[in-house]
Amino acid sequence: VQLQASGGGLVQPGESLRLSCAASGSILDIHSMGWYRQDPGKPRVMVAKISSGGATDYGASVKGRFTISIDNAKNTVYLQMANLRPDDTAAYLCFADLTYKHGPHRVTGGSWGQGTELTVSS
Question: If you count Cβ atoms within 10 Å of the first and of the last residue's Cβ in the chain, which end, N or C, has fewer?
Fold first, then answer.
C-alpha cells in the first residue's frame, strides 16, 4: 500500500491551498483517512480525519478554516485549507486506516504517506 501526498507549497497568510493524498495498492477497504502535521522535534498532531462514511474530526486550531473530504471511488482524501496562518507551517502527512491484501491474507492496519511541506509566510 502506498499513500501519495501532494499539494504543499509556499503561500501567503490568508491564502488557501488544497492537499491531496491518494492510496494505492491491494486495497480491500479504507476505513478512514486523515492528515497529521509534523513539526521538528515534536510529536505528530492530528489535523483532520474522515471516515469512509464521511464523519469528520478536526484539530482545534483548524476548525472553521480547514475542510477534509474523501473520494471513496478514488481512495483519495483532500484537505482544503483556507485563511492560512504562519503557524500552519509544517510537514503534513497523510494517514489511512485500511484493509489490504498481503499474499493470501487480509491485513488491517494503518499506513503513512510521505509528508508534503506547507510554508505560510509573507
Answer: C
